[in-house]
Every structure is written in structure tokens, then in C-alpha cells.
Amino acid sequence: MAKYEAQHANPSGPGDTRPTAVQIVQDEELIGKLTDKVAFVTGANQGISLEIARALYVTRATVFLRVRDLNKGQEAIAKILSTSDHKFPNTLQAVELSLDSLESVRKATETFLTKSKQLNLLILNTGVMATPLSKTKDGFETQFGIIHLGHFLLANLLIPTLIQSSTPQFILRDSYDPWVSYIQSKTANIYFANELERRYGTKGVHRISMNPGNSTTILDQYLDQQTIEDAKKNTELMSYFKSPEQGAATAIYVAIGREWEGRGAIYLAECSQQGPTKSQNPLDTQDQGYASWAFNEPDAVKLWEISSELVGLERIHNSSD
């Protein structure tokens, strides 16, 4: 259960000995082996999600890349094809989808289902971080709307296909804190995963929460330059940063690792299952555990019900169905 623990014990920064996503695929002996599987990855034109798509590509699964711009999607596909030692034609497709628009989510789902009646892996990894106060096209706070609600609707619309393929609105305060919003949205992700597992685990649809760790991506685009410069001077902090290829490793391990098959409602970081945090410092980079409230079932149920209302799902996928 701690296959890669030793490699994460003494990190020294991006490109060190911690595994990459493609290495996980190799270790699982799945190069070219998933020809009968279909995957859907959000945010797949850049950063960690691009590396997730790259790793899934070498399994020879059919991979749909969720992108805001189809031209960028084609550029991402070209990058994957040009840098891979493996050539599997026609296994990568781009789907236009903006998670800040529920209409776009519905339209993209319809587009996907015209292309594939099968879906085995749904990897929800699109994110924004510490954005200025703003709203989605549907009027939701941006981080909660994109990180949680957009993914919530997308997953619910695709749950019937996942089953078939299986062997609270953010409250704006007087003083907006982008980090509070980010943390609440990430907590919503965990609640969503746990409740989805409770409702559909017995039907073969499982969801696991994972933390990819800090990677060198554009996620810091909303941070002020001084904060970024100060972080770069912190040698200990930077030693925990990963390359995007390494950042994608935990997601790929969750998706294809044999030891996680049939499991859900657990939390992974550094390619290992984590227990509750022992640290009182939320910025402690060495403690990858989850907060005490992360597995609160009543809160997860309540969030599911509120989210269903917010995105316009009427009593869909009731746990008794």
C-alpha cells in the first residue's frame, strides 16, 4: 500500500526520483494494454491534466481531452503525439467544454455521448486557485462553480454511462478571501467523491479523492508576484514541488493502479493512501493527511442535494434507484 513511499521521503524538487505518470503506467505493465477502455480528462490541454492524458495515451485507451478551446485541444494532442515513443493513431479526441457554464457542460456531454457510448475513467482535474472575486456564467462564485459544480453536473450526466461501462452555493462574505473559497471548493470535491461512492459503489462506479501535490503549472496565475518570488526563495518548500509529469502520477495511479480497483471514498497523496492529518498547520508540506471533517457523511449528503438543485438536476440518481 506504500509502493512509492520511499521515493517521496526526501524530495529535492521537480524531476527528482519521485515517479511520473508514465512511469506508473510502466510499473503497472499497462503500456498498450487498455485498448478496450475509454477515458475522459478535464483540463487536458495543459499542466497536470495534459500529463494525465499523455500517460493514458500510452495505455492505448481512447482518451477524450476536455478543453475550453478546440484549437488548443488539437495543439495538446499534437504535443502528446510528437513526444511519445508509442504511436497509437486515432485514440485522442478533444471535446469543447467550459466548466464555468452549465449549458456548456450539458452540450459537451451530449457531444461526447455521440462519439462514445462507453466511459471507464472520468478524471476531474480542472481547477483554478485563489481567483479574484468573480462569478461563473450561471452566477456562482468562480472557484466553487468551476472546481465543484461544473464537475458535479458533468459526472452526474455521465454516471449512467459509467455504470453501463463498469466490469451549498458558496456564500459571499463582506470580505472575500480567495483562499477560503479555494479550500471550501476542494472540500466539496472530497464530499462529492465520498457521496458518489456511497450511492454508486455497489454498481461499479467508484471515486477516489487525490492530491497531486504542488507542481510547476499556471495554477498560480492569480497570485501576486511577490508571493511567488518569496516561495521560490524557500528552499525547503520548493523541494516538495514536482514537475507536471510527476504531479500527474498520483492521478494515474488512482485511475489504473491494480491495488485501487473496486475501491472508493479514500484519499491519496504522494501515490499513497493517507489518513487524517496530524499537523495543525495547513501549510505543512510534510503532512499530506485529510482534515477531520473530510469524511462527514451528513455534510456530503447535504452538499449533494444542494448541488443538484443549483445545477438543475431533479432528483437524479437517487441512492435508492
UniProtKB/TrEMBL annotation:
InterPro entries according to UniProt: NAD(P)-bd_dom_sf, SDR_fam
Superkingdom of the organism of origin: Eukaryota
Record's keyword terms, sorted: Oxidoreductase
GO molecular function: oxidoreductase activity
Pfam families tied to this protein: adh_short
Family (UniProt): Belongs to the short-chain dehydrogenases/reductases (SDR) family.
PANTHER family to which the protein is assigned, alphabetical: NAD(P)-BINDING ROSSMANN-FOLD SUPERFAMILY PROTEIN, RETINOL DEHYDROGENASE
Protein name: Uncharacterized protein
Species this chain originates from: Clonostachys byssicola
Upper lineage: Eukaryota, Fungi, Dikarya, Ascomycota, Pezizomycotina
